[in-house]
Amino acid sequence: MKYQQFTAAAITALSSAAIVSAAPRPLAARDSAAGDLLGGVLGGSKSGQATYYTTNGVQDGTCSFTGYTLPAGIFGAALSDSNWNNAASCGACVQVHAPGGKSTKAMIVDQCPGCGENHLDLFPDAFQDLAALSVGVLDVQWDIVPCDIDSPISLKAKDGSSQWWFSMQVVNSNLPVKAFEVSTDGGKTWQETTRTSYNYFEKSGGFGTPNVDVRITSETGEQLVVQNANSASNAATTGTANFKA
Question: Which residues form the Expansin-like EG45 domain (predicted)?
């Protein structure tokens, strides 16, 4: 959880001259079938405001992406707690559109408490793609889009995870994750896990074995299976593929 560069009270106090409003305009066309499907499933474009903050939201953010490095060309962002939905957007990428046709891509890595619905608190480099930092607050439109990551998906077990208490997250995904299931019998049956607000999928009591198969379902319905994932404390397992962009 982070403190914003501009708090909700500060935003209210800003003069109208400091706020750049985006006139209604068509957004750039999505360039993939996955993008089209994401728009339909997740409700399409959102209108809100964007600010920026300077704390390291990747390493210290509510999405718990400690140790992760953002892919080239993707910045970071904190999403309003009004849109948080129990961390369902963690790792999702957003294409943010500002006045004058400028845009930037950012990954949701953190939560922005008290920011208001559809608000994005961007990393400074992302905000500077849209406007000078001195502007402070922008009216923006944004869509959840595929991240276009070339490398495979990765799984990370939480500190303390074991065969008796299971806790694992998805990292480096091209698409938002909808479901996370575990199999201990080679994929014959699958067991559900519970998503947490800090972006881990858990099962109290664990699965009785340190190595499991994991089936991940994206918001578009695509599925990936990672075999022999290590659920031991802080273990990382790299998959062989990523969701199609």
Answer: 60-152
CATH number at residue 132: 2.40.40.10
pLDDT at residue 57, rounded to an integer: 81
Same domain, 141 and 161: no
- Count the Cβ atoms, other than its own, within 10 Å of residue 214: 24
C-alpha 48: how far from chain center: 17
Contact between 237 and 161 (Cβ < 8 Å):
no
Residue 169 in tokens? 């997250």
Question: What mean pLDDT is predicted for residues 172-191?
Answer: 98
Helix (H, G, I), strand (E, B) or coil at 35: helix
Q: What is the CATH number of the domain that holds 220?
A: 2.60.40.760
Helix, strand, coil percentages for the chain (3-state, nearest 5): 15, 35, 50
Please state, in angstroms and rounded to a whole number, the distance separating the CA atoms of residues 236 and 156. 4
Strand partners of residue 230: 211
Q: Report DSSP state, residue 174.
A: S
What's the pLDDT score for residue 245? 73
Measured CA to CA, the distance from residue 6 to residue 120 in angstroms comes to 11
Identity (one letter) of the amino acid at 200? Y
User: Does the pLDDT at position 238 exceed 60?
Assistant: yes
Q: Which of 242, 244, 61 is nearest to 154 (CA)?
A: 242
* Residue with more model confidence, 35 or 103: 103
User: Which of these ranges, 40-54, 90-104, 158-172, 189-203, has the smallest mean pLDDT?
Assistant: 40-54
**How much is the pTM?**
0.84
Task: Determine the Cα–Cα distance for residues 238 and 117; give it in Å rounded to an integer.
Answer: 35
User: Which domain, by its residues, includes 211?
Assistant: 154-238
